[in-house]
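Researcher: Re-running this chain for the archive, since the previous output was lost when a drive failed. Same request as before.
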Amino acid sequence: MSLKQVRLGFVPLVDCALPVVARAKGFAEEENIDLTLIREMSWAAIRDKLSYGVYDAAHLLAGIPLAARLGLGGMPSQRIAVPMALGRGGNAITVSTRLYQRMLEADPAAMHGPRGLSARALKKVIDEDRAAGRPIMSFATVFPYSSHNYELRYWMAAGGIDPDKDVNIGVIAPPRMFDSLRNGWVDGYCVGEPWNQRAVFHGDGVIVALKEDIWARSPEKVLGVREDWVQSNPDTVDALVRALVRSAEWADQPENRTELAQLLSGENHVGASFDILRASLLGRPVLKPGDNPIEAPDRHVFYRYTATFPWLSQGAWVGTQMQRWGQVDATVDFNTLISDIYRPDLYRRAVKGLDVALPHDDWRVEGVNDAADRAFVGPDAFLDNSIFDMRSFAGVGE
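Model: Regenerated structure tokens:
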């Protein structure tokens, strides 16, 4: 039987690991797929090429399928399905070494307390600048409809900062974040690895909050496929999901992380240094130039804690953030919309027969963080101890 060709676009980040592993370790071929990977520099390019059929599948931000369906971002409405997630973790908020020093001087207690609350120190720096008549600072995220944008805003808001008035927030492609910080074009950013570690390793930036400090196990990247392609290629969709789930299980084995760092370091994949990638993948990131690594074993989770399951509740949370920050009207019914985009039914169908842990329901109460839940999904507390229950979602961002 000839292999089915699948063209998949990705952006160079640690969490492009699953398609890279699927091709390099033979999981795609074992599922009768000839997987072609195409590296892109921006999320807009990935979205557009998937929508117009250049790609069959894509490594996508969790918010892009929602935005595409709503016709946001200058594109007509597009129907993109999400049959699986591509893991959890990896994001961080990095500021310039100069800004870090100012934050430390402004509020040492906030900077030495829980990392998720470090924005309190930034608030004092912003207030100092305003009193002195200085221009407001600039921060960057990778895309308007990204978890990075919502995490940066969540972190700022928890510290008393209005991200729409107190700072400028722009968009920069992930691989260009480091140069933008080094050259002084931005004061900080939220991006996935390895672009935070790179700033630290080169002495230009300090990580002031990790994704897991803001909301552990939160939605990140997903597998995106056009809905018409799902309908015309159901067996191939199942095979692709199986190949990627098997890749996730391989990537989560501690003994494979060094090899994974080597794979990703190739110029046709992430193209960052092996040492930077390994530090992040081994769960020993360095947060400040010259400091010792911290222990963060769940910095990247690819398979454990149902990391590949496309939870409806996580998609709904992304929708609430779109509404909270004025990207969509408050009347949009995301509960109905999400069940049409996030497709746990496709995931369940694809992994049937594999030894994959499956939840009883397709949604969960996010942030509960009780003992029984932690055993299945891992610690999932929000930095402000809030809880998100999609059943009570009435179109108002929490």
